[in-house]
Design a protein that fits this description.
Strand content: over 45%
Shape: globular
Distance between the termini: 40 Å
Number of strands: 28
CATH class of the domain at 238-327: Mainly Beta
Radius of gyration: 21 Å
Largest sheet: 4 strands, antiparallel
Number of helices: 1
Strand order of the largest sheet: 3-2-1-28
CATH topology of the domain at 238-327: Thrombin, subunit H
Structural class: mainly beta
């Protein structure tokens, strides 16, 4: 081989390696909260390898990442006996914890959503939801819900609607924003559903809300426009934990912390199409953006199950630290 050709080959390899490195840098990272280890694990979702871990504070439960993939925000729950009052923050580029956000009198933060560049959260112990503005570095809005154990929330992309699951009140709350002169006002509709609604999701078209009721093994289906429960579906879960629509809206996934099953429903027929036994308890659910895979935290077994949504089979397992639960994507862009 000539010297010129060797130089050309080396140059091509350099470009290829640089392109590969850039692709990995921009690929989404899988964030896994390891509750029992007080840590946030950052995984490569393709190679299923851990890249780094950072401290997540006391009793971390849910996690979201900023739109630019630079920061992760984590609720430090504490539940009833020792309710927390902080949001932990992790710098995902430096892969280290930053000083936590003190929420003051807002106790037992749990559910998290990112919308409009701001972090929405439930404060279960204070019967409110709040919003943290990273630019202003302050909680800039709080709204009382008045329900017991407001645990999870979903915020619409335009921030005009917020939905909450109120576990001990057996309600789903629909909040709608309206302008009254120069003041933003919110109206609340509390819908009675099954016992212990916890995991829930809004369909991709925004028409329906499905709530998994942890206390009676059912799923309540809400017509969002009509603001009423239109159907209750028995799914025979022992303690449902989370519920997620697939990106195409055709299927609904329910994790069962009691049995360890992942229950798959057809969104049109409302029928159970499959039960996948994942282990001793299924918790957090995360969908790939293209709808090809689901990631489900199997908390008691210290792993995340990777599920092919085409075949509805478990294709691999990600070994984690103790007690994986909340899951999120970080864009890396």
């Amino acid at each position: 081989m000539s010297r010129a050709r060797v130089g050309l080959t080396a140059g091509c390899l350099t470009v290829l390696l640089a392109a590969t490195t850039a692709a990995y840098a921009q690929a989404p990272a899988l964030l896994v909260l390891e509750k029992g280890a007080r840590s946030l694990a950052i995984f490569d979702p393709v190679r299923l390898e851990v890249l780094a871990r950072a401290d997540a504070g006391d009793d971390p439960h849910e996690v979201v990442a900023s739109a630019d993939g630079r920061f992760a925000y984590i609720t430090n729950y504490g539940a009833f006996s020792t309710p927390g009052h902080t949001l932990s923050v992790v710098d995902l580029a430096a892969r280290k914890a930053l000083p936590p956000i003190d929420l003051g009198a807002l106790r037992a933060p749990h559910g998290l959503e990112l919308a409009g560049g701001r972090v929405y959260f439930t404060a279960e112990g204070s019967k409110v939801i709040g919003r943290y503005d990273p630019k202003a570095q302050q909680v800039d809005w709080v709204l009382g819900i008045g329900q017991d154990r407001t645990h999870m929330l979903v915020v619409s992309g335009d921030e005009q609607r917020i939905f909450t699951a109120d576990v001990n009140s057996n309600t789903i709350t629909l909040l709608e924003r309206a302008k009254q002169g120069d003041v933003s006002a919110w109206t609340a509709t509390h819908l009675t559903v099954g016992r212990g609604p916890e995991g829930f999701d809004v369909s991709p078209d925004g028409r329906e809300l499905w709530a998994a009721n942890s206390g009676d093994g059912t799923v309540s289906i809400v017509d969002v426009a009509a603001k009423k429960v239109v159907q209750t579906v028995p799914v025979e879960t022992k303690h449902s934990n989370r519920l997620k629509f697939t990106p195409d809206g055709k299927r609904v996934l329910v994790s069962d912390l009691g049995s360890g099953d992942l229950v798959v429903l057809d969104a049109v027929s409302r029928a159970v199409v499959k039960r996948l036994g994942l282990g001793h308890g299924a918790a957090g659910i995360l969908l790939a953006g293209d709808g090809s895979r689901a990631f489900v935290a199997v908390s008691p077994d210290d792993n995340v199950a990777v599920i092919d949504l085409g075949t509805l089979t478990v294709t691999s397992r990600i070994a984690t630290g103790k007690g994986p639960d909340g899951l999120a994507w970080a864009s890396g862009k």
